[in-house]
Amino acid sequence: MKIKIFYFARLKETLKFSTEDLELPDDAFAQALTILKLKAFLAKRSDVWQQMLLGKLKVRGAINHELVDDNAPIVDGDEVAFFPPVTGG
Amino acid sequence: MKIKIFYFARLKETLKFSTEDLELPDDAFAQALTILKLKAFLAKRSDVWQQMLLGKLKVRGAINHELVDDNAPIVDGDEVAFFPPVTGG
Amino acid sequence: MTVRVQTEDFDVGFEVNQLRNARRDTGAIVSFVGQVRDLNDGDTVTQLTLEHYPGMTEKALEAIAQQAKTRWDFFDALIIHRIGSLKPTDQIVLVAVSGAHRGEAFKACEFIMDFLKTEAPFWKKEVTQDGEHWLEAKQSDDDARERWVK
Amino acid sequence: MTVRVQTEDFDVGFEVNQLRNARRDTGAIVSFVGQVRDLNDGDTVTQLTLEHYPGMTEKALEAIAQQAKTRWDFFDALIIHRIGSLKPTDQIVLVAVSGAHRGEAFKACEFIMDFLKTEAPFWKKEVTQDGEHWLEAKQSDDDARERWVK
User: Fold this and answer.
1) pLDDT tens per residue, chain D (150 residues)?
2) Which among C59, C122, C136 has CB closest to B88?
3) Is residue B6 part of a domain?
4) Number of folded domains that form chain C
5) This model's pTM is above 0.90
6) D94 and chain C in contact, CB less than 8 A
7) Which domain holds residue C133?
8) Does A82 touch chain D (CB under 8 A)?
9) Rounded distance, CA D131 to CA D127, Å?
10) Do A and B have ≥3 inter-chain CB pairs under 8 A?
């Protein structure tokens, strides 16, 4: 499966990633992929990733431009985004 | 005692009075004058006055530019006003 | 706190900018503009005349703004109310409140409007196709005011 | 319903007049303007950068306006939010709501602001004398949002 991931604000700056295309083998993991499982997967990349995605910072997820919670399922072709709580207005 | 009375909106238009200076003998009536007693006093002038001041129209009173209730006392030199419920804004 | 009762129209953008720029720590400006509707209770309105009680009006509006100030934390409030002869789509009233944060500014602005509607000595007379008549006070305005005192 | 996300400033007077004049039965326009404060948590702010999520931002703001529409009776809503680099006293956001009556317009405007603050993907980074840092989300904003869902 192929997904696109965007990172914003503190995540983007610290991870030095604004966007990436991620390709995963179509196995059981991919078929049961959720926001939380994707966070855990990415967190294995390094301590910084671990810290940013599963650390003290509350990270919110969006799928295809909709805010979702940690259990939301991710499917092939989805646009996923991770970002800290919003601070506009 | 001498007081000044103002009438507004429907009262002014129907009574054909916008303002008047009223002089009352300094008797027991004047000494115990209230908004309600003044209304009753003025209502004796004619059916129209009776209708406007003690009829179906809710009439509010003010003394020296402050909204007051029917029992508010009126003293010499006061500026009294009668008007329907307000409709600004 | 500024209160103006005037026949002239007002410029919302100018007034809001004045409030906004008065302090560099202003974070929020809430404003209300009321305008003459062309329809009221199904009648087509062609003109509206606003009468008031000179002397009392300004005092009543200032008292309302002061009362708001004792209840909410805001920087400044501006009240402009027009009098005289107005047409549909004319502006009647502006209430603008500046503050550090939005919650208190929203409440103060709505409070001022609800009390202005029920305590400031203005009276509206409408001209419709059926002639002219004084507007009746609305129960909904009394109810709106009551919310703040319970 | 109109949503605009832009780097340019906006003109509150112009926008409020547009809304006001769009319908002759408009009786009330409630608007909120947010501006960059020169002080935040005691630090002097010299600059503010607003990042957002293009594509999602517009959708989120439209969804908020639509949600307000299902809850209150108003005519139209306008949301303008600036992005990019701003300075103290710059305008950040405008929410304006037009309607027949004030109560519903006040509620809709405040509702839109409370949800914009907690659901629209904007992030603020401040530059102060101590360097730059991302702003933290505020508990008070979450609380403000919660009032509408209980």
Assistant:
1) 999 999 999 999 999 999 999 999 999 999 999 999 988 777 788 999 999 999 999 999 999 999 999 999 999 999 999 999 999 999 999 999 999 999 999 999 999 999 999 999 999 999 988 899 999 999 999 999 999 997
2) C122
3) yes
4) 1
5) yes
6) no
7) 2-145
8) no
9) 6
10) no
